[in-house]
Amino acid sequence: MTTSPVIEIQGLAKSYGRVRALDGLSLSVPAGPVGLLGPNGSGKTTLLKLLLGLLAPDQGTASIAGHDPARPSQRLALRAAVGYMPEGDCLMPGMSALELTSTLGRLSGLAHADAITRSHEVLDYVGLHEARYRNCEEYSTGMKQRLKLAQAIVHDPPILLLDEPTNGLDPQARRHMLELVHDLGHAQGKNLLLCSHLLLDVERTCADVIVLKRGRAVLQGSIAELTRSDGQRFRVRLTGNRDAFQAELAARGFECSAVGQADLSVRFPDAGADADPLFEIAARAGTQITELSLVRSSLEEIFLHELARESER
């Protein structure tokens, strides 16, 4: 998997009448599984359609897999390099899953025999092997979502654009879909852009995240870095005199609050401190620390914080 950006965007803008969906968006999408987050109306789906050449930008440029989607002469090569799973229904009435997948495989550049072979493989992969000859109109919502994923990967593209793949799924079907997305992005090394409004889906499947608001990128980076422990907050479980421990913490300038019935959240007054003082305080208070862990900021906390900051500007 390449380490250079797979998508490059410079000053991309798109309006629908008076509504500005993208507002001079500039960003580089790294290789690997990347989440595209944002509230409704932030421009996520518009961005995907621009990258596919389904819409023409008002201004700015985009490059995906080295191809310019605004140039018709490059769209055939783009179609071969990119798999797209749309949010809306893309299934053709009257077709079985095998017929649909192989047809779209041929439209993506596969020869007829190769399209049939690959269709069997990807339908097995998404768990539709026993239903491959059934009319896709008879499928449940979960099966339709898996079929949409199958048609996106039938030509084995290096880049996947997935728009709300867990939309409308029950918990079991959602878990299965996320397992497939995680496998594609990690075990199979696909470069994928996962468009979702569900932060937990992105946190579970992606290595990087991009947050859009009002058509602009307000946050981008590695999820591990964005949610890393700040080295200041610890979750503590102990035995012994909890009140004495809290009193010693307060005397030393530590902030402390209860977490549930058994744990305490302790924030150090200085950045970069380690946990050694906690053990000293516990010994002085006649208590013993039995469990200790660094507290990580969740992606949801980061997401909401950045959206609130953007609203203040």
Q: What attributes does this structure have?
A:
elongated; four-stranded antiparallel beta sheet; 28% strand; 11 helices; 37% helix; 313 residues; alpha/beta; six-stranded mixed beta sheet
Could you characterize the architecture of this molecule?
- The chain starts with 6 loop residues before the first strand and ends with a helix.
- It is 37% helix and 28% strand.
- The strands form three sheets. A six-stranded mixed beta sheet has the order 5-6-7-3-8-9, sandwiched between helices. A four-stranded antiparallel beta sheet has the order 11-12-10-13.
- It is elongated.
- With 313 residues, it is α/β, with parallel strands linked by helices.
Q: Using the CA coordinates, give the radius of gyration.
A: 24 Å
**Global geometry:** elongated
Report the major sheet: 6 strands, mixed
Could you give the order of strands across the largest sheet?
5-6-7-3-8-9
- State the distance separating the first and last CA atoms: 38 Å
Q: How does the helix and strand content classify structurally?
A: alpha/beta
Mean pLDDT: 90
What is the helix/strand order? Answer: EEEHEHEHHHEHEHEEHEHEEHEH
Bin the helical content: 25-40%
Q: Enumerate how many helices there are, as a single number.
A: 11
Query: What is the total tally of β strands?
Result: 13
Low-confidence stretches: none
Approximately what portion of the residues adopt beta-strand conformation?
A: 25-35%
